[in-house]
Structures
1.
Amino acid sequence: MSMKKFSEAASLMAQELLSLAASRAKGVSRFLPRIFPTFYKLGVRVPFAKTPPRIFISVGRLVMRNRFYRPFTTLAMERHRFNQYNFVAKRFNPLIRRRRVALFHKDALDGIKKVFQKNARYNDDLNSTDLPDQIDAYEFGQFLGQGCNAAVYAARLVNPEDSLTLGPGFNEVSQVIASEPPNNRSEFRRQAYPYAVKLMFNFEHDRVSIGDNHLWRSMGTELAMYPKAAQMLRGRISDFKPLPKKHPNVVRVHTAFIDSLKVMPDAMERYPDALHTARWYESIASEPKTMYIVMRRYRQTLKDYVWTHQRNYWVGRVMLAQLLEACAFLQDHFVAQRDMKSDNILLQYDDDEEIPHLVVADFGCALACGSWEVKFEHQDDNNLGGNLKTRAPEVATATAGPGKTVNFKMADTWAAGGLAYEIFTRVNPFYEQISTVDYLETELPQLPKKLHHVAKDVVRDLLRRDPNQRVTPHVAANAINLSLFRFGSDVQKLLADCGLNKLAMLQNLAKTNGSSVIDKLGVTANRALDNVMALLTAETITATLAPQLVSRAEKQLRATFLSRVTREDLWTSLHYFFKETALVDADSLASLAPSNSPFFGSDGSSLEKNSKPLPNILPNNKYLPDSNGIVHRVRSK
Ligand SMILES: Nc1ncnc2c1ncn2[C@@H]1O[C@H](COP(=O)(O)OP(=O)(O)OP(=O)(O)O)[C@@H](O)[C@H]1O
C-alpha cells in the first residue's frame, strides 16, 4: 500500500480517536485495533510486553466475558494477529472509501485544534487552583533564589483545605501519568512545599500616605503573566494589558496580593536594604507592606540545569520547542518579556532522566501595553528592559532622539536563539564571545555537528540581525515540533512520501514571486498537509498509552503545538525540511534516535558514561546510509 493510502487510513483513524477524545470517552483502546494496521504497515511496532501471544489469547478468552476488560482483550488479540499475518492493502479500502467524504468536508486541522485546546487529558492548564490572599495562610520553607527586585521562598499552606482545586489539578494528573513514585528526597521536599512565593522588595517604606495603590502601581507590571492582573490593576496602571490566559510554558501564578512585610529569618543577611529597618528611613509606615506573588514551584533554572544534567539532542530540541511556544504565545498577545536569560527560564521534572517542562518566568521588565513600540527620546531613558547582553540587536543599537521609538516585537525571539546555544552547548555566545551590538551572523559559533539540521537552521534564523528577516517564533516552533515527529524512521522522508516536498518547494519559489501555489492547489495541497497532521495527532493520542516512552513535557508540547498551529505557518516551516540543497545526512538523523545519541557537553562529547539513554519508540530500527548518502531504516532481527 502506498504511503498516501496509509496516511489517508491514519487520517480516518485519527478522526475516530479525535471524536472519541472529544466526547471524553474512557480510553482509546477500543480504537487501537483499527489504528494498528496503519502503524504496522508503516513499520511501527506498538510497544507492549513481549509476552507470548498464546498467553495473550488465553487471557483474552478468559476475560472476554468480562465487559470491563474487553477493550484490553481485543487489543492483545489484534496485536497478535497483525504481527502474524500479512495484510492485504485492499482490507483498508472500504474504510477509506466510506469515510473519505465525511473527513475532508470538515476542516481537519480545526478539529485537531479543538481537541487539544479543550481536553484536560492533554492540557492540564484547564485546571486551576484558588489560593488565599493573606501571607499568614502560608508557611515558608527553603530560600529558592533572589534577584534585584525580589526574594523567592518555597511555601505551603498552613491549612491545606484553604486550597480550592477546580478540575483535576496538576499533581493529580501527574500522579496518574507517572509510572513510578518519586524516588529522591528532594522530590519529597518539593511536594511538601509545592508553591514558590516571591516577596517583592519595597524600597519605599516611608511612603506612608499613598497606601497600597502605590505598591500596585510600582510593582504591578511583575504580573504581566497573570491573567487576573488585568482586573486587579484596572485603574491603577494605565495601558496595562497582561496575558489574557495561562500557557503551559509561562510561569504559573496562583495569586498575588499586598500584605504586611514578612521578615524571614535570613532577610537581614540577604536583603537588609529592602526591610523597613534600613538605616536611611526617618519615618516608616506603621505597618510596612509589600507585594507577594504565589507561583507554582519549579525545580531548577535553565542556567543550573545545563551544568548539572546530562541531556541529549532530543531533550535539547524538546526544551527549545517549549521556549519557542512561549515566545509565540507572548507575541500573539503583545507581551515582550524583555529579560530572556537562563536564570529566568525555570524547569520542572521529577527524576533526573525526565525531559524537563520549561517555563518563562520573571516578567519584571515586561512590556505589556498592547503595542510593541517604546519611546526612546533620551539616551539615559531606562525603559529598554533587562540585561544589556541579551538585548536584540535592534534594541542594543537603537539611538535616542525626538520621536524615536524601539520595536520589541521580535526581541524575545532573538533572545531565544541565544538560549538555544545554552541548551545545546551550555554557553551563550553573547555573554562572552561576541556582542549583540556588532556581531556578524557569520561569527556565530558552530552548533554541535550531530544536532538535527532543522534545529541548526532554526537557531541561525532566530539570530538574524534584521528583525524582518528573523524567523517568527511560530514558524520556528513548528519546524522543531515537526522534527520531533517519531512516526517512521525519518521525518523528512515521511513528509516527502506524503507529497509535501514538492508542494513546499513550489510554495517557497512562488512566495518570492508574491503568489501562492498552495492557494491555487487549494484542497489537494491542504489535504496532504492534513494527512500529516492527522498522523501526528494519532501518534500523540496513542502516546498516552505509553507514558514511559513519551515524557509528560513532550506530550504537553505536542498538545500546545497542535492547538496553536495554522496551515500558513506550517507551509512556511516546511521550508526547513525541503530546501533544494537540504539533504538528510547520517549525523542529523542520529539525533532522531535518542538511544543512539551520546550525551553531550559543550563540544558535543560525552558528559557521563553511565547515563541511561532515552527510550526509543522504535526500538527495533536502525538508520543506515546507502551509497548515495540517503538514509534508510533497517529493521534489526
Ligand atoms: N516559581 C519558582 N520556583 C522556583 N524557583 C523560583 C521561582 N521563581 C523564581 N525562582 C528562583 O528565584 C530566583 C529569583 O527570582 P526572579 O528572577 O523572579 O527575581 P528578580 O528579583 O525579579 O530577578 P531579576 O534581578 O532578574 O529581576 C530565580 O532565579 C529562581 O532561581
2.
Amino acid sequence: MTAAARPYRSVLYIPGSKDRALEKAATLACDAIIFDLEDAVAVEEKVNARATLIKALTEADYGSRARIVRVNGLDTPWGRDDVLAMAEAVHAGAKIDAILIPKVSMKGDLDAVANLINGVPLWAMMETAMGMLNAAEIAAHPRLEGMVMGTNDLAKELQSRFRADRLPLVTGLGLCLLAAKTYGRIIVDGVYNAFKDEAGLKVECDQGRDMGFDGKTLIHPAQLEIANAAFAPSEAEIDLARRQIAAFEEAQAQGLGVAVVDGKIVENLHIVTARQVLAKAEAIVALAN
Ligand SMILES: CC(C)(COP(=O)(O)OP(=O)(O)OC[C@H]1O[C@@H](n2cnc3c(N)ncnc32)[C@H](O)[C@@H]1OP(=O)(O)O)[C@@H](O)C(=O)NCCC(=O)NCCSC(=O)C[C@H](O)C(=O)O
Ligand SMILES: [Mg+2]
C-alpha cells in the first residue's frame, strides 16, 4: 500500500524504552505507531532506548501498521546518533517506514536529517511558532511524506491556555493543513492528553476530521477505538458517495453535467470526493485483512 493510500486514523506513540508497550503494540488496532525516542524517554534512558527499539524493529512483527521512529533533535546530544543508528538498522534489515523529526522550524531542519539517512521518508513534527510560519516550505521538501501536529509544544510556545475548542491553536492547525494539502502530504492531528476522557477525545477527533486531518496521534491504547471510528468514513458517508456516483453517471449518460441527490447538486468535483471516501473505506478493510 502506498503511503498516500494507507489509512492513518490512529497513530499511537510508544515510548521506545518500554519493552511491554513495544510488545503490546503489535497486537493493538492502530494504523501507525510512532516509536518515540524523544519526549517519552527520560534522559538517563536515551541510549538504552535506542538499542531496545532497534531490537523490536528488527524482531517484532508489527503487521501492516506503519512504523515511524521519532528521533531526538539534532541540537541534542542524542539526535545525530539516533538517526545514524536508524540508518544502520535499516541497512541491517530493520523495518522503518519513516523518520519523524521533532520541532521542525524550517526546510534546513529536514535537510540536516536527509543528509544523514537515505531511502527513508521523513516526517516533521509541526510544533513551533516558526514552523507554523514556514509550514509551506517544510511541506514542499522533496523528502517529506507526512506532518504531525505537536499541540503540546505549540501551546507551550504560544503560552496559550487549554480550551476544548482549541481556539488558540486553530491558526497553526490551519496553516499546516493548507501546506500539507497543497503538497499532497499526510497530516495527523496532535494528542489529547486526558487519556481517560473519552467524550473530550471524541470532540477533538471530530474537530480534526472536520478540518481535514487524516487521523490523530494518541498516547494510550484506550484512545484507539474513538479515533478509528472518527477518521473512517461512516456508513452514511459511504452510502451517499455510492448514490452520488450512480446519479452522476446517469446524468452524464443523458448528456447532463449535474445531478441532484438528497436535494443537493452533485458535480464532477463532488465525485472526486465521493471516490476518495470509497477508496479510504476500501483501504481500511484491506488493512484489517
Ligand atoms: C500515559 C501513560 C504513561 C499511561 O501509562 P500506564 O499508567 O502504564 O497505563 P495503563 O496502566 O492504563 O496501561 C494499560 C496497558 O496498556 C499499555 N500501554 C499504555 N500506554 C501504551 C502505549 N502508548 N502504547 C502501547 N501500550 C501502552 C500498558 O503497557 C499496559 O499494558 P498491559 O501490561 O498489557 O496491561 C502511557 O500510556 C504512556 O507512556 N503513553 C505514551 C506517552 C508518550 O508517548 N508521550 C510522548 C508523546 S506525546 C508528545 O510528545 C506530543 C507532541 O510532541 C506535542 O508536543 O504535543
Ligand atoms: Mg512535542
